[in-house]
Amino acid sequence: MTDEQKPNQDAEQEHDMTLTTRQGHPVRDNQNVRTVGSRGPTTLENYQFLEKITHFDRERIPERVVHARGAGAHGVFTAYGTAGDEPVSKYTRAKLFQEEGKETPVFVRFSSVIHGGHSPETLRDPRGFATKFYTEDGNWDLVGNNLKVFFIRDPLKFPDMVHAFKPDPLTNVQSMERFFDFVSLSPEATHMVTFLFSPWGIPANYRQMQGSGVNTYKWVNTEGEGVLVKYHWEPLKQGIKNLKQKEANEIQSTNFNHATLDLYEAIERGDYPEWELCVQIMEDGEHPELDFDPLDDTKLWPPEQFPFLPVGKMTLNRNPEDYFTEVEQAAFGTGVLVDGLDFSDDKMLQGRTFSYSDTQRHRVGANYLQLPINAPKTHVATNQSGGQMQFKVDRAPGQNPHVNYEPSSMGGLKEAPKPGKDHEPEYHAKLVRAPIDRPNNFGQAGDTYRSFEDWERDELIDNLVGALSTCKSDIQERMIDYFTQADADYGRRVSEGLVSAKSEESADGQANPHKAVEQSQEKGREAG
Ligand code: HEM
User: Fold this and answer.
1) What domains can be seen in the chain, in order of their start residue?
2) pTM
3) Cβ–Cβ < 8 Å for 263, 206
4) With a 6 A CB cut-off, is 374 part of the ligand 1 pocket?
5) Which residues are CB-neighbours of 384 under 8 A, at least 6 positions away?
6) What ipTM is given for this predicted complex?
7) What is the per-residue pLDDT across 236-249, written as a single tens digit (0 to 9) for each?
8) Is 356 annotated as a binding residue?
9) CB atoms within 10 A of CB 32
10) Ligand 1 in reach of 144 Cβ (< 6 A)
11) If you take atom 17 of ligand 1, which residue's CA is the nearest one?
């Protein structure tokens, strides 16, 4: 083939709409299987049919064990070069933040947590806000939620928490009794529950919500000095909007995909959502002067003491070309950091860091990092090879293909130079199983309750009374006790609400729709 011929042929191929098999064979009949006579039987050597149907049989991968329902978009992060009034380099040497105007491509996946892949997007649930930054130093994932705190502070409790919140293993229906059974024996969840049952538990859509890294990380500068850091995404022009339960019910009655559609359509019409990334910074250490531990993810860092410092802005401006390829196969994890960003000793963060890549090797496969959505957009050269679905070797140009080990004197890969002084925290402590000091389970829950506007508090009480009405009385009592410890008015209102809900129920003589499930749970308790 001459060079003059080639472009024409490429152009022809570009416009070739012929259907083929994955082996590249043109498909000449896509309507009829091959049969003996027009009425069958079918033959087994029908490769085209077998390829089509067996691929179809494998179209699904396991859905995420949590955060199964989601929507994603591509965009760009633009750094400010500063953290508030200071040059950002005072705190971190991470390259993506250093220069004003520096752009880093990003991919974001928003999600809801508890229910499956096609569940309604109107449910009361935290929302996931996971961002992959494709930086020049490799990828950084910031895997956060819309709410700034979490239910638990020890990763050992996570599988139990998720089991209690997910549908009952027998009925396959979510039960508020199981939810509050767990929560009423986990007092540290009171703060998160106060947010979740308020309108903040149903963001109007994905564009009009905040995001937060929730866990405490570290930033490290060129001197190797570390500070504690928390990350927050603040929506810019689109603002923040949450829904009352009634509004959510109305949307859900006609549309259970409203948040996915809202994001997709906004980007299609050029109305690109934007968030500012802010950090809160605290000197590294235990901070005995605070009434909470800075590594406790059930706590907010008071913004008056630890102000929000803007460090950059993110714009989402491109929809995925294919949902499965980009959104379903996207894999985010808290272990994915770049130089200048580090882990703190936050136990939850460390537990999470093991879990994400572990589940992704199972959910997507051992080579999930070779997929374009997950692969860094920079130099990748490893000596890892093999496993299902490997489609290339991570070889550096010029690398001796015989050398897949390090160290080697025969043209293999070499260690990188150190970018700055290592951050080397020292530890002198016993190895123990112990809760943190200063649990302070109720103080901030009370502050949050008092910070709400009247309508938000009214919604919170209504939603809690509705959910707790389906629970047995000792669960109700424990929850009322927690709410009272947070704020006397909070506890009193939930308690009074439950009393009047009970008297209304007996006055109506209405059949409780959950009765059969309750009876079955009662039997289960007796059996146990
Ligand atoms: C997803 C584990 C706490 C935010 C997941 C997944 C696992 C997991 C296994 C599925 C990942 C996948 O299939 O790709 C854990 C564990 C936790 C924990 C063990 C506690 C010990 C949290 C917290 C947050 C959070 C505190 C919020 C800051 C998310 C988000 C996703 C997710 C946003 C979805 C990521 C995506 O869009 O693909 N988590 N998680 N998780 N988790 Fe967690």
Assistant:
1) 70-370 (2.40.180.10), 442-503 (no CATH)
2) 0.94
3) yes
4) no
5) 394
6) 0.97
7) 999 999 999 999 99
8) yes
9) 8
10) yes
11) 352
